[in-house]
Design a protein that fits this description.
Oligomer: single chain
Distance between the termini: 36 Å
Bound molecules: ligand C2E, magnesium ion
Shape: globular
Largest sheet: 8 strands, mixed, barrel
Radius of gyration: 20 Å
Strand order of the largest sheet: 3-4-6-7-8-9-10-11
Helix content: 40-55%
Number of strands: 11
Mean pLDDT: 89
Length: 296
C-alpha cells in the first residue's frame, strides 16, 4: 500500500498513486457522506466478545465492538471507519449511540431476570474533549436504571498523551459514580508507566498483539510476565486480550493471569450468540472445555 498514516493524516509513502489508495479515498468520502443517515437508519450495531476467567472457564462479561452493516458495502469493521470519524468528530455521536444501545440491552437482560455480567464499551480519545461526557454517562445509567458497574468503560491508553489532567479528572469522577475503568491497549503507547502513576484505573487491559510484533517470543513472554507481576503489586486486576492459541493460553495460566479475551476462546459474536454462550457455559468446568464449545 502506498499510504502511510501519520498522526491521522494519510501520506503517500512512495509517491505512487495506486488503485487501493484511490479506493480508500472514495471509501472515506462515502463514509462521511453516509454517516448521519446510517446512524438514523440504525446501520451501526455491536458484537459482543466474551471475556473469560482462566481458572474457572466462566464468562465474566463482554466487550461491545461496533460494526457497520452498510446497505451496499456489507459488513464493515471499525478499523476502517473509526479513524475517519475521529478526524471529523462524528465519533462522539456514534459512541453515544452504541453506549445507549448497550444500556438498553443490559436493561432488557435485567427485565428478563437473566444472570447479568458487565459489558464494556470503548471510549475514543476524541470523546474526552466533550465537556459533558461524565454528565452523559450519569444520565444514561439513570435513564435505563442500570447499575454503573455493569457498563464498564474502556479508555485507550494513548488518550493520556493528549490531555493527562483531563483523564485523571474524568476517570475519578466516573469512578465516584460507580463506573469501572479499564485501561485499554496498555503498554502499546509511549507513556504507559507515567499514565499508570497518575491515573487511577480499575483494570489493566493488555493487548497481546503489540507483543507479537517482535520475533523474540521469550522476550515478549518476559515482558508480559513482568506486567502481570507489576499489576499484582499494584493490586490491579489484569485482562489479556488477543489470545489466539492454546500455547498462549497455557503461558498466561502459568504466569498467573486471571482474565482473558481472544479468538482462541471466542470471536466477537452477535448478541443472541453471546446469550447462548452464557447459557452453555454454565455447564463447562474449564476454559479449555469452554473453548471447545466455542469452536464446535
Ligand atoms: P480494542 O478496543 O482494543 O478491541 C480489540 C480488537 O481486537 C477488536 O477488533 C477485536 O475483535 C480484536 N480481537 C479480539 N481478539 C482477538 C484475537 O485473538 N486476535 C486478533 N488479531 N484480534 C482480536 P475490532 O472489533 O476490529 O475493533 C478494533 C478497534 O476499534 C477496537 O480495539 C477499538 O479501539 C475500536 N472500537 C471498536 N468498537 C468501538 C466503539 O464502539 N467505539 C470506539 N470509540 N471504538 C471502537
Ligand atoms: Mg477495547
Ligand atoms: Mg484493546
Ligand atoms: Mg486494540
Amino acid at each position: 500500500l502506498a499510504l502511510k498514516k501519520v498522526k491521522g493524516h494519510y501520506l503517500v509513502a512512495c509517491g505512487e498513486y495506486d488503485e487501493s489508495m484511490h479506493q480508500r479515498l472514495l471509501d472515506e468520502q462515502s463514509f462521511i457522506n453516509g454517516m448521519n443517515e446510517a446512524l438514523k437508519n440504525r446501520e451501526f450495531l455491536f458484537y459482543l466478545q466474551p471475556k473469560y476467567e482462566l481458572a474457572g472457564g466462566k464468562i465474566i462479561g463482554a466487550e461491545a465492538l461496533v460494526r457497520w452493516l452498510h446497505p451496499q458495502k456489507g459488513f464493515i469493521g471499525p478499523n476502517r471507519f473509526i479513524p475517519i470519524f475521529e478526524q471529523n468528530g462524528f465519533i462522539l455521536n456514534l459512541d453515544k449511540y452504541i453506549w445507549e444501545e448497550v444500556c438498553k440491552l443490559l436493561r432488557s437482560w435485567m427485565d428478563e431476570g437473566r444472570q447479568i455480567q458487565p459489558i464494556s464499551v470503548n471510549i475514543s480519545r476524541v470523546d474526552l474533549y466533550d465537556n459533558d461526557l461524565v454528565g452523559f454517562f450519569a444520565r444514561l445509567v439513570k435513564k435505563y436504571d442500570v447499575p454503573p458497574r455493569l457498563l464498564e468503560l474502556e479508555l485507550t491508553e494513548s488518550a493520556y498523551i493528549d490531555n493527562p489532567e483531563k483523564i485523571v479528572e474524568i476517570t475519578q469522577r466516573l469512578q465516584e459514580m460507580g463506573f469501572i475503568i479499564l485501561m485499554d491497549d496498555f503498554g502499546s503507547g509511549y507513556s504507559s508507566l507515567n499514565m499508570l502513576k497518575d491515573v487511577n484505573v480499575n483494570v489493566l487491559k493488555v493487548d497481546l498483539k503489540f507483543l507479537q510484533n517482535t520475533n523474540h517470543n521469550n522476550r515478549s513472554g518476559q515482558i508480559l510476565n513482568s506486567v502481570v507481576h507489576m499489576a499484582k503489586c499494584l493490586e490491579l486486576p489484569i485482562i489479556v486480550e488477543g489470545v489466539e492459541t492454546l500455547q498462549q493460553s497455557e503461558f498466561l495460566r502459568s504466569i498467573g493471569c486471571n482474565w482473558v479475551q481472544g479468538y482462541y476462546y471466542s470471536k466477537p459474536v452477535p448478541i443472541e450468540t453471546y446469550e447462548k454462550l452464557i447459557e452453555q457455559m454454565d455447564g463447562a468446568k474449564d476454559v479449555e472445555e469452554s473453548a471447545e464449545i466455542c469452536h464446535s
